[in-house]
UniProtKB/TrEMBL annotation:
UniProt superkingdom: Eukaryota
GO annotation, cellular component aspect: mitochondrion
Organism: Horornis vulcanius
GO biological process, one term: triglyceride metabolic process
PANTHER family named in the record: GLYCEROL KINASE, SUGAR KINASE
Keyword field: ATP-binding, Kinase, Nucleotide-binding, Transferase
Pathway: Polyol metabolism; glycerol degradation via glycerol kinase pathway; sn-glycerol 3-phosphate from glycerol: step 1/1
Family to which this protein belongs: Belongs to the FGGY kinase family.
Top-level EC class: transferase
EC number: 2.7.1.30
PROSITE patterns per record: FGGY_KINASES_1
Protein name (Swiss-Prot/TrEMBL): glycerol kinase
Domain Carbohydrate kinase FGGY N-terminal: 9-269
A single GO molecular function term of this UniProt record: ATP binding
């Protein structure tokens, strides 16, 4: 007889370097079980960084399945998992075909630099080549970093994606959208949504009205019908469906009811709910976020303004200032894989 520990919560943590699934006791926040899988990064050319969206999705399946197996071994009743949250690497861009459920190109990862020429071309269309032209709408400067320019590059360079857009088959999303759509049914009724924190990293989202911005979509020439619905960070988006790969089918019917970009999730996880509280995270990159409360604060010194979280449909949005360093932990992987001066990350 499996032990019942009261309500449990599952968390899918899809990062740049790895995927994890963790199960917590909802009352005590004790971590009961988890599983982690490393994700491959591909570098087709200098400065290009891609990942296979199917590999990302399969890593989620594997982590969920292995975690459930470990819980069975520990004699913990997995039917007590009441809700699942998703947190994800931000800005990484996926376009897929809603009729086949297949990606139309590899995911372009947030630190990819191929869009430099796209940014330069777009800058020519802005009076005075002002990189901060959309700062007060989006909180972001025009940069290779954000999803809109990655999506623009895909539309300009991948014939299959252009055709899918013309045929009304294309869907765009960041990793959270790709996972939620796939996990809630995919081509058989999957929910195409994102949350405000991930939307605020695209350069297409007005962080004040909390809606996709028609003028920005027009500027980037991106069709609004391919964009996901924007929801709060805490509400039920849809229910997990049974997949052939889930041998146990353990989580079928469990609601996916939380979604935050990884750095916002870390801010929430560190309980930085007061104006002025900040957290710093060392992952693939290094990110400092400072909660600025219900007001958006704009920096004169290169910090970006972002939505920190919105804890429910009818709850207000909270904002943060963010400082980003693209390469932190990634340099450890580089020392291991490229220079070969360490066999494992632990040695460093």
């Amino acid at each position: 007889m499996a032990e019942s520990l009261g309500p449990l919560v599952g968390a899918i943590d899809q990062g740049t370097s790895s995927t994890r699934f963790l199960v917590f006791n909802a009352e005590t926040a004790e971590l009961l079980s988890h599983h982690q899988v490393e994700i491959k990064q591909e570098f087709p050319r200098e400065g290009w960084v891609e990942q296979d969206p199917m590999e990302i999705l399969n890593s989620v399946y594997e982590c969920v399945e292995r975690t459930c197996e470990k819980m069975n071994e520990l004699n913990i009743d997995i039917t007590n998992i009441r809700a699942i949250g998703v947190t994800n690497q931000r800005e990484t861009t996926v376009v897929w075909d809603k009729t086949t459920g297949e990606p139309l190109y590899n995911a372009i990862v947030w630190l990819d630099l191929r869009t430099q020429s796209t940014v330069e071309r777009l800058l020519k269309r802005i009076p005075g080549k002002n990189k901060t032209f959309s700062k007060f709408k989006t909180g972001l400067p025009l940069s290779t970093y954000f999803s809109a320019v990655k999506l623009r590059w895909l539309l300009d360079n991948v014939e299959e994606i252009r055709k899918a857009v013309e045929d009304g088959r294309a869907m765009f999303g960041t990793i959270d959208s790709w996972l939620i759509w796939s996990l809630t049914g995919g081509k058989n009724g999957g929910i195409h949504c994102t949350d405000v924190t991930n939307a605020s990293r695209t350069m297409l989202f007005n962080i004040h009205s909390l809606e996709w911005d028609p003028d920005l979509c027009k500027f980037f020439d991106i069709p609004m019908e391919i964009l996901p619905n924007v929801r709060s960070s805490s509400e039920i988006y849809g229910l997990m469906v049974c997949f052939p790969v889930f041998e146990s089918g353990a989580l079928t019917g469990v609601p996916i009811s939380g979604c935050l970009g990884d750095q916002h999730a870390a801010l929430v996880g560190q309980m930085c709910f007061q104006d002025g509280q900040a957290k710093n995270t060392y992952g693939t990159g290094c990110f400092l976020l400072c909660n600025t409360g219900q007001k958006s604060v704009f920096s004169e010194h290169g910090l970006i303004t972002t939505i920190a979280y919105k804890m429910g449909k009818d709850k207000p949005a909270f904002y943060a200032l963010e400082g980003s360093v693209a390469i932190a932990g990634a340099v450890v992987r580089w020392l291991r894989d490229n220079l070969g001066i360490a066999k494992t990350s632990q040695e460093v």
